[in-house]
Specification:
Helices cover 33% and strands 26% of the residues. The protein is α+β, with helices and mostly antiparallel strands. The chain has a five-stranded antiparallel β-sheet with strand order 4-5-10-6-7. It has a four-stranded antiparallel β-sheet with strand order 11-12-13-14.
């Protein structure tokens, strides 16, 4: 049985939306296809009438500065995101996350937009984008809108995006400023394809020995991308030391909803290892911000 009947290759966002909304049967956009095509082939998704290939739309593959923010197109391959100098300069945590996604072949085709469209709440790129406080640009027939990245997640595999009528154009991130830095780390199983057990991303701004602002994301920490708001509150405005870290860790453990996965780890094990992972990620971001105290917005970052 054919998994789809028509295959469209639009060259603009407007053409892509037209192809989606005018299809005579079920239609979905596809970029990397590393999730969708597996779901179709393995019977986890009903057959489609039309696949709309987004990889020929230049805007969706762009990585550039726009009006003082870093824009990353939703269909830019993960490997290109990881290698891009602008991303390395302004979103180091995202580079580190992208470098850990699956293997080289998958990274050459997979996209951040696909992860978000499939509402994967603990994917490496998702957790990095959460800590970086990303905004998403969504295009529909009625126009375009910007929304907090995390608002697109309703639960595991449950997206707020109307996939038959809307497209993720891309993601906007703030440019790095003096005293700011980010980091992503994860713990994974050392067998076969290294399955992640737990990941963590931290973005922070420091002034001398104080944490002026901080974003903390941990996955999987809930049914949607988890920001440890209580932990952030515990550290914000405090000196960076063992005491402030202990308060932040206590708040994180109270907030996070770790789950047991038969192929990855138990909830109790995740609670046990999160302390070391959180500390390593936080300390690295802190040290990077110290090295970057004299950042002037022009020199290469780290």
């Amino acid at each position: 049985m054919n998994l789809w009947q028509e295959y469209k290759k639009p060259i603009s966002v407007a053409e892509a939306l037209e192809a989606l909304t005018s299809a005579p049967g079920p239609a979905l956009p596809v970029a990397g296809g590393t999730d969708l095509l597996l779901d179709l082939r393995q019977g986890r998704h009903s057959p489609l009438h039309t696949l709309v290939d987004l990889t020929f739309v230049p805007e969706l593959a762009a990585i550039e500065l726009r009006a003082g923010r870093l824009f990353i197109g939703a269909a830019a391959p993960v490997n290109r995101v990881a290698l891009d100098p602008l991303v390395n300069e302004h979103a180091r945590a995202l580079v580190e996350a992208c470098n850990l996604i699956a293997g080289p072949q998958v990274r050459n085709t997979a996209t951040l937009g696909g992860n978000v469209a499939h509402a994967l709440p603990a994917a490496d790129g998702t957790i990095a984008l959460t800590a970086l406080d990303a905004q998403a640009e969504i295009a529909g027939l009625s126009g375009r809108r910007h929304t907090p990245f995390t608002s697109l997640f309703l639960g595991p595999g449950n997206s707020a995006l109307n996939k038959g009528e809307e497209l993720i154009v891309g993601f906007y991130l703030a440019q790095i400023k003096k005293g700011q830095a980010s980091c992503f780390k994860r713990i994974m199983r050392p067998q076969g394809v290294a399955l992640p057990i737990l990941n963590c991303a931290v973005w922070l701004e420091r002034e001398r020995d104080s944490v002026m602002d901080i974003h903390i994301a941990v996955g999987p920490g809930g049914a949607t991308p988890f920001r440890a708001k209580g932990a952030e509150k515990a550290m914000r405005g405090q000196s960076f030391n063992d005491g402030s870290f202990a308060m932040a860790l206590e708040a994180l453990l109270a907030e996070a909803q770790f789950r047991t996965s038969a192929r990855r780890a138990s909830a109790d094990y995740r609670k046990h290892i999160v302390s070391g992972l959180f500390w390593d990620t936080l300390e690295t971001a802190w040290e990077r911000a110290e090295l970057d105290q004299s950042y002037d917005g022009h020199k290469p970052y780290c």
